[in-house]
């Protein structure tokens, strides 16, 4: 939906409201809006793309490959298709500018959608000089993945290798290769197509993009190591949690479950309104793995059942509707005195769930100069959904109404106090080295203080102040 069309429709709607138009007129206008929306997303693609004769055959890996390929390239992709130019990607402030400098056809390209690479590239806000062409500097940052919570992910995303290969491929190999060597000599070589396919199905949303997926995988690895959980996992289990974290938002359409339910999205119909996106992401990752026959053949049936079980468990847990259920699962076991994650695998995976959930909202525990850009991009995505909800006459929640963006700082206070604090506090109970207290909790408190200072200010203005600042942000070394 183009911004000009959106503004025109909103202007007409305001005119009708201001002049107290008859209900029949306003209802007719709502139907016009919905018709425009239906035409824009081109729902008709679904019927022509999906072939119902293709069914699953658990015993046939070749059939599994066929199903996987067709399933995520036709049915799934049609379900999440959207017509958006991504004109205001918060994490990509220099994209259009670079196009103008490098291409004579800039006027045409500026008006065209961003390349559908599935990730958004942003610059570091730490005001530290970085040579993004330097292989030595790249490898230095890469070596901190899974070991240093405060690694500069925004800087990493700008290194030449990452811009060419993508964050899922680069970060995925860095995190999985050590455990891959322990699973099979050919594992890491065969892993590349899997990571590439996962990266390809990430859409270039302002927030839920491949860079977010890579970041969550890195953060989950840090938490698992810092809390001493890594030593309790087998190589197959390590791979399972890492690939789940990497692909936990694969194919995310930039819309919430509530939006998909309200609009009766095909995905909502497939998953019966229950954790729609989370079911979709988990299924998509499993289909991608199965589609790579040679890679899939490395796993025994028992290994694959375990991998799939953990992918489903971890990815479904990222549904915020079940947030407190997962916190209480750990709390109840801990309070009962029976909690023993070192000897009870189910207790261990209850903690792994909390690690993935913490990583999924992990930008709240990053230094302010990283937390703020991620927050801005998240609300950019929310506001894009809100624009479509206005178009469809769906009531807007606070987070999705761009006319109330000055309320965001105060709403962030509520999110920190209501959601992030209970989650991190539960993990702190097993944090024998105080790692979470020294780094995550400290960053979180600093961010809270910043939100309080910026009450009732527009996010764009707060971010502008950060970008104009020449202060070199001293970020603590959080290496384990």
UniProtKB/TrEMBL annotation:
Residues 128-458 form the PDEase domain. The active site is at 208 (proton donor). SUPFAM superfamilies: HD-domain/PDEase-like. The keyword Metal-binding applies. The keyword Metal-binding applies. Keywords: Hydrolase, Metal-binding. One of its GO terms (biological process) is signal transduction. Gene3D superfamilies: 3'5'-cyclic nucleotide phosphodiesterase, catalytic domain (1.10.1300.10). GO terms for molecular function: 3',5'-cyclic-nucleotide phosphodiesterase activity; metal ion binding. AMP binds at residues 208-212, 249, 360, 412. Zn(2+) 2 binds at residue 249. This is 3'5'-cyclic nucleotide phosphodiesterase, putative. It comes from Babesia bigemina. The lineage of its organism: Eukaryota, Sar, Alveolata, Apicomplexa, Aconoidasida.
